[in-house]
Design brief:
With about 290 residues, this protein is α/β, with parallel strands linked by helices. Helix content is about 45%, strand content about 15%. The strands form 2 sheets. Strands 1, 2, 3, 4, 5, 6, 9, 10 and 11 form a 9-stranded parallel beta sheet that branches. Strands 7-8 form a two-stranded parallel ribbon. Strand 4, helix 3 and strand 5 form a beta-alpha-beta unit. Helix 11 crosses helix 12 (about 275-285).
Length: about 290
């Protein structure tokens, strides 16, 4: 088994840049990847639970020349580690230094065989080690302190989802320096709070406010039961789904960097299906 001590002082092999995009697999395609690369984003995170063959990651990399692609995340329960390892090797050979394998445990509601999650994470990382996936090209989905520490010990770092800059600050304290911290942040480009919440609330409530790992993490951050109930309080929705004009949204994203993140993957939420207008507005300010 390898750990962080094997590459102390070695930079992470994949350059993600400061800002990337996060989008569910069904909403990603090579044409979008080309446009996002032109805008100057550093990485595309494939959301959801991409299959073990990782064909979409390969397609996105084939269509582009510099942008990195990361999985956010491959689900350890659904994807055999040996198959994932072989897929990593195929992609890394074709696109060296541009693919980050993000893996995670998912949540207990998603599978009937979900048990002893920490032990599963450890054994899965062991299997990826055996399959030859370099530690510096892996990231681990992590929210709580125990898994954050494991991310620092066994991978390049952590990819927290559905968090706030306060969580980022706490995560950096736990991870220490020199460990990747790449949180996801949802944003809505709308200056009308009610309209913005109408877009953000469904994406946040279903399923995340009904999943124990996310709820527990929000409570660790100080949110109360009444904030989480009934679709989420306005204050919670505003924190998890930043809204406003481009300047306000950019400030919300930058807050994660100020709190210690190395990279922020931005998920644009909109009433329509096209995220590019939002990504263009953000790029004009941040990239």
């Amino acid at each position: 088994m390898r750990g962080r001590g094997d590459f102390v002082g070695t930079a992470m092999a994949v350059n993600l840049g400061k800002i990337g995009i996060w989008r569910g697999a069904p909403g990603l395609n090579p044409d979008l990847a080309v446009e996002v690369e032109k805008l100057g984003y550093g990485a595309i995170w494939i959301g959801g639970s991409p299959g073990a063959e990782l064909r979409l990651a390969e397609d996105l990399l084939d269509a582009t020349s510099t942008i990195a692609v990361a999985t956010g995340i491959v689900n350890m329960w659904n994807s055999d580690a040996a198959t994932v390892g072989a897929s990593y090797k195929r992609i890394a050979a074709r696109h060296p230094g541009r693919f980050l394998l993000g893996v995670g445990i998912g949540h207990p509601e998603a599978t009937q065989i979900y048990q002893k999650p920490y032990e599963k994470i450890v054994s899965y990382l062991d299997e990826l080690d055996e399959a030859g996936v370099p530690v510096e090209e892996m990231a681990l989905a992590a929210l709580g302190p125990k898994v954050l520490r494991l991310a620092a010990e066994r991978t390049a770092g952590a990819h927290p989802y559905l968090t706030t800059p306060e969580h980022t600050r706490q995560a950096r304290d736990i991870l220490g320096d020199g460990v990747l911290l790449a949180p996801e942040q949802k944003v809505v480009f709308d200056t009308d709070p009610e309209r913005a919440r109408a877009v953000a609330r469904p994406a946040i409530e279903n399923p995340y406010l009904h999943l124990v790992n996310y709820v527990n993490n929000l409570k660790r951050l100080g949110w109360k039961d009444e904030d989480i109930a009934d679709g989420g309080s306005d204050q919670l929705i505003d924190a998890l789904g930043i809204h406003g004009d481009a300047k306000t949204v950019a400030e919300g994203v930058t807050a994660h960097l100020d709190a210690g993140a190395d990279h922020v993957c931005v998920q644009v939420l909109s009433a329509g299906d096209d995220p590019l207008p939002g990504y263009r507005q953000l790029a004009d300010i941040l990239l």
